[in-house]
Amino acid sequence: MSPAARLPAALRGTVEVLWDYHDLHHDPRSTDVGIGLGSHDLGVATCAAALYHRRLFPRIVFTGANAPTTVETFPRGEAVHYREHAVALGVPDEAVLLETTARNTGENITRTRSLLTAHGIAPGSVTLISRPYQQRRAYATCRRFWPDVCVRCASLPTTLDDYVAGIGDVERVVAMIVGDTQRIWLYAERGYAIPQPVPDNVRDAYRELVEAGYTSRLVA
């Protein structure tokens, strides 16, 4: 791990509180569809391919257009690059559906549901595959907009330190984790997600990181 991609020792424990909070620790189970949520992290597609090869679902939907943080990395769109990566990992092209217009997690969910309906697919269960620190928000969003489906969450298994090293940008990763934490209660208040419990140590860790300046991904 390079020094540029190492968490500051003074903040590492604080960041790990939030990292652990967002991981729902769902055991992998068979579901009807795997849904890879678009982002800057190609590990989402790697995880989706691995779960497909374990026969945990017969079909994958990759969903995502672009955000300012992904347009340079995935110029043809997040979902398109995810599919290419999954196919390169041995997933049959015919097992993948693409949703290429969603620009946030709510749209990932609602537009994927519409896409599946258009293909005559009405899943009773789905596996949401996301960045590790997006699991809780993805779950809460899906429960809000798709309440009749059983939801499991999954991410590529990794430690916090290895994830930071893999992304290679401490400021970005910590700011994204802080931003996702704020969205847990903020989006519930705005009706974008169901409420989630937020323990005191999570709120304390969030405030400490905000005070340390990791605020670039906060919602106004």
Automatic annotation (TrEMBL):
GO terms for cellular component: plasma membrane. Signal peptide: none annotated. Gene3D superfamilies: HUPs. InterPro entries: Cell_Envelope_Assoc (IPR051599), DUF218 (IPR003848), Rossmann-like_a/b/a_fold (IPR014729). Residues 45-148 form the DUF218 domain. This is DUF218 domain-containing protein. It comes from Parafrankia colletiae.
